[in-house]
Model the fold of this input.
Amino acid sequence: MVARIKDVEGALVDFWDWQSQGSCNTMDPEFFFHPEGERGGPRRRRIERAKRICQSCPVLEQCREYALSHGEPYGVWGGLSEEERNRIVSARRRGKTA
Done:
């Protein structure tokens, strides 16, 4: 049984390892997740700042695909805002049902 737990632990570490390599790893999460009630210009500027950080991230693709496949509802992930991810997920669903 112990060997099985170790296998699972290793698999989990491998699954999440990409996050430790992200450009955002040591940054304040407020750069990527909006505070309660943030709207308009301040929200757009925060999203654009977060996207600029993502542009040069070595794990941008892994982050983006994780957020899309796991339905991350909040924040900027892989250079995509919440609204952009929602559009992509909706388009993927339409493509699968068509």
User: Anything to note?
Assistant: The helical segments are 2-20, 40-55, 60-70, 82-97. The chain has one domain: 2-97.
